[in-house]
Amino acid sequence: MRPVRLMKVFVTRRIPPEGRAALARAADCEVEEWDSDEPIPDKELERGMTGAHGLLCLLSDRVDKRLLDTAGANLKVISTLSVGVDHLALDEIKKRGIRVGYTPDVLTDATAELAVSLLLSTCRRLPEAIEEVKNGGWTSWNPMWMCGYGLSQSTVGIIGLGRIGQAIARRLKPFGVQRFLYTGRQPRPQEAAEFQAEFVSMPQLAVESDFVVVSCSLTPATKGLCNKDFFQQMKTTAVFVNISRGDVVNQDDLYQALASGRIAAAGLDVTTPEPLPTDHPLLTLKNCVILPHIGSATHRTRNTMSLLAANNLLAGLRGEPMPSELKL
Ligand code: NDP
Ligand code: DGY
């Protein structure tokens, strides 16, 4: 009998159990995993990738031309444990005929839920208020103290009315939002109809929104999209929320806008870099709430993402349709 040639799979982190188990069951693959909760060092990634047929990676692994060259011609599939694909050099990947799997939809609800939590925490100043209880700043019930901004009768502007943008709007609507605006590359009348959302330009969205929520993908066109000009057009009472990627925002400009009172507050689930250094100026601001990129972090969602990522990888390696393949 001819020996069966196993396909080599490299996994760049310890992943949730369902995905791990699916890979372990794959009799046609030899799976090597960076068995750690910490990021893989570059050297180990290069070593593991060399000669691999399949890669299961995270959004924190930068898959660039150099790494693809290192991997060599065996590499047929890249499966990322994320819906965002900005860490992948898609042009290079396409040139090499490599298939890409990703994890849309299964994390939409968890991420939208987190976005709403972040928005409410930011506009109603929850972290600041909790701190005041602990540090003795709460001296009496004071009519003027700890006031924030509410959603009722507000205008919410969404940058990127995609899967997550729509799921956020759906959750915000029952809070009494009066008007939804959105922007993107083109109008999406079908999706917008549910919220009677109006397609507007970036400047109009900045000028008219009480809340700005960023839920677009990071591309060359969206890098630095929210900059000084944008913040200057926003209302001084407006609240800015970003759950997309840190690079969509010019963080120096955001810092200036927050520190000078140009805008009221910001809530960020994503920053540049990640993790944000603990001495970063944004962390000195009371009107900035920062979370450590936990949009999809529920046990169920991460497990489902890991299973989908594993199934994408295995289907791609076997030449079958992937459950979620990125169109390149
Ligand atoms: P979708 O592809 O459904 O949505 C992406 C949106 O980006 C679309 O509405 C698209 O609008 C918009 N977009 C693309 N280019 C531009 C542009 N030039 N200007 C304005 N908008 C643009 O993806 P998802 O909703 O599933 O995910 C969105 C992003 O959220 C991911 O790419 C990821 O970066 C981030 N994310 C963050 C998470 C977290 O933990 N914080 C969790 C999950 C995702 P149009 O096509 O109309 O231009
Ligand atoms: C993604 O999937 O792109 C998120 O940032 C993490 O779930």
Automatic annotation (TrEMBL):
Record bears the keyword Oxidoreductase: yes
Record's protein name: Glyoxylate reductase/hydroxypyruvate reductase
Family indicated by similarity: Belongs to the D-isomer specific 2-hydroxyacid dehydrogenase family.
Domain of life: Eukaryota
D-isomer specific 2-hydroxyacid dehydrogenase catalytic domain boundaries: 9-326
Species per Swiss-Prot/TrEMBL record: Ceratotherium simum simum (Southern white rhinoceros)
Keywords annotated in UniProt: Oxidoreductase
CDD domains reported for this sequence: GDH
Classification via InterPro entries: D-isomer_2-hydroxyacid_DH, D-isomer_2_OHA_DH_cat_dom, D-isomer_DH_CS, D-isomer_DH_NAD-bd, NAD(P)-bd_dom_sf
UniProt xrefs under Pfam families: 2-Hacid_dh, 2-Hacid_dh_C
Annotated Gene3D superfamilies: NAD(P)-binding Rossmann-like Domain (3.40.50.720)
Name of the encoding gene: LOC101408459
Residues annotated as domain D-isomer specific 2-hydroxyacid dehydrogenase NAD-binding: 117-295
